[in-house]
Amino acid sequence: MDLSSISPTLLVASLMVAATPILLASIGELVVEKSGVLNLGVEGMMIIGAIAGFAAAVGTGSPIIGFICAALGGAALSLVFALLTQFFLSNQVATGLALTLFGLGLSALMGQSYIGIKPPASAKLDLPVISDIPILGPVLFSHDITVYVALALVAGVWWFLKYTRGGLILRAVGESHDAAHALGYKVVKIRIMAIMFGGACAGLGGAALSLVRVPQWTEGMTAGAGWIALAIVVFASWKPARVLLGAYLFGGVAVLQLNLQAAGVSIPVEYLSMSPYLITIIVLVAMSAHRNKTALNAPAALGRAFHASR
Amino acid sequence: MLRLEKRPNPSKTWAYMAPVLAVFATMIGGGIMFATLGKDPFEAIRTIFYDPLFSEFAWYYRPQLLVKGAPLIMIAIGLSMGFRAGIWNIGAEGQYIIGAICGAGAALAFYPAQSAFIFPTMIFFGALGGFVWAMIPAILKTRFGTNEILVSLMLVYVAEQLLASMSLGLLKNPEGFGFPGSRNLQQYASAHNAELWTGTGIHMGVMFAFIAVIFAYVLLARHQMGFHIRLTGESPKAAKFSGVNPKRLVVYCLGFSGALAGLAGMFEVSGPSGQISIDFNVGYGFTAIIVAFLGRLHPIGILLAGLLMALTYIGGEIAQSSLGLPSAAIQAFQGMLLFFLLALDMLTNFKLKLASAGSHP
Amino acid sequence: MKNISFSLRKGEILGIGGVAGNGQDELLACLSGEALRPQDRIKLNTMDIGHLAPNARRALGLLAAPEERLGHAAAPDMSLTENAMLTGMVRKELSRSGFLDWPRARAFAQEVIETFDVRTPDAQSAARSLSGGNLQKFVIGREVLQNPSVLIVNQPTWGVDAAAAAAIRQALLDLASQGAGVIIISQDLDELIEISTNFAALNAGCLSAARPMSGLSLDEIGLLLGGANAAA
Lengths: 310, 361, 232
What we know:
Number of strands of chain A: 0
Oligomer: heterotrimer
Largest interface: A-B, 50 and 49 residues
Order of helices and strands of chain B: EHHHHHHHHHHHHHE
Strand content of chain B: under 5%
Structural class of chain A: mainly alpha
Low-confidence stretches of chain B: none
Low-confidence stretches of chain A: none
Mean pLDDT of chain A: 83
């Protein structure tokens, strides 16, 4: 066992990359839940994004087109969810699950011919002098573009929710859809837009997995990342900055356990692999035990169907 | 413009018609999907739905319906109780795995002794394993209010890692030439979950599945617990008013579904599957969710839906070998089925009305 | 709710007046047993019941009808038979060692429908298919026909047509004259003036001391509602 072989700089740098897919999915789901909708289909949308992005990138040779297609794919799948829950008023939990199961199956289907292929590498930031600074260089300035896009997205969502009128309306719809409807806001339209944004983000997250983090396509490669994204939204008390913290925390655990495995730590591999999931549970329990604080932040209309009775 | 109007009384006709229509819609949707994959849609649909029942090899496939259907039905029955009450056990796959590990572990602890007591012990531990695994989200929910969806789901991944660990470690076959996996329980007479009548595919698990269906039916229709479950799902405030203890209900529902899932796992590992191995679990715990909804959370419905799902599994396997249809297609197909069902389900509570332009809403 | 204290006699109708949002729902929940709080001391015929759950209180004769008809007093998508089972299980012996007697529940529902002239095709109709007035008649009638020793109702005639309202008030009067104690929580002052024996006002969670209705002038009622003479 050789713990000294674990380099902290590399650890932090790799955790940022590892956290990016989940960060993207979480911030998208945060927006969806802020509008009052619980979309359990994040896992399905992520994996569809993963294969759509992979296929597009391999087919066109351009990772950027891959990412765009991933976002479109995730948004398209989320549209099905939107249709079912907003127009057909179906149960949100069941529909989200159906989305995940369908997404997993469809992606496996689409991905048949892409197993084992290497995707085109996406651009990494490479600033002349800055990227070479000993510790800050790898940690802050040498990442793949996706890492920066994810961070920008988190900042953008935070600013949108806090300072724009659109953000205020979104939050109003999530707190009380009846009141928002009475005020004349189109609840259904706003929710559909939120859902599609969430789908696009999840799709991007999936592509970040298949094009950057791994980078390869394997059936079921998200391995529960979508579910963890849902947990992170709860952990973050529906606040964007805390989503960043949660995603990085989770990324950190995932990367640390891999490093521990490589360093030859004597804990069996399987138990180390369990750790991210167990830690998620512990975090969830801790959050719900402090019920008073978090309950105040959950959008009041979360999960309830809206039907204009007028 | 189409408008949705709430029905004063839920429509009974639609309650029966929705699943049937959903199946037909899926056949059409699935056909389109297969066509885009370059397969003849009619042949694909026929292979999946008709061949297992009526083709020349149907005598082999029909018993498989029960073999594949039993775990689905058993798990779905357990899940449906919780779903009705708004208690979402999504981690049945994990409870299934743990039940299998405990059941197989119990059997292997006695190896190589032969005794009539071994199988009942396995049944006990299988159910107990699943029950305990489901108690984790139950206790976390009742004590801390933690969301059971996420906890039970995380535990699936933990269970999968435990399965791998067991296959490579504690339960590994010492005479297995170093390959991962436990002893094959099919070769251990006292532990083997054998066919009760050859050629029928009916093993103990199938019997238990039927018993579960009957039990659930009686519970829901005739027993106070069933009434409380239905009430909690429809109207939580009225349930509280009626005196239902929501925490106790969470424990009962999660415990019951966990035990059934664990039992299903145990019957599967000691029967059709045979051994504890890394890829022992094939997603029954998740497909059972579709079965539960397809059966409209009703015991008889679940029985039929489970057999239908089994049909798609078996038909899918045939299509895989004879038409080259990838196995993932069936998974997508099953997901599509749930989509259509959810969409059509709305019609039991709402009427579609054509509102002419210019009329007041 | 702050320090609420009152007592109820056999045959007495206590009217608790107050504008909505002053603690009415909470008061009913505490009395019915839905909100169990260790600091509550409630005595029924000298027996301590403050720690008992709703069905245990029902067994002893304490029944309640909450304000919200659909979603609380009755389950909207369930039939009237099932809604009869909702509260009638205990006192009407509709359950034997856990197994439910549906034919008996249906007969009970039918009895309520006939006695209180509830307009509905039959006992199998969903609760949400009834008009507000008819559903309220069913909800109140369901409790009245269980022979309570104490009945607490919250806004019994809110949103109900005049004929049904009159029928409900008469039912409450009859119940009291047979020896039960009745508590009516209502925003409708006319109603309280009409049928209460005693009156108390609920204001910001505080209950005024109960005074005989007959001696109260409208001015005094107004003052009480505004918070004067609140039991601190």
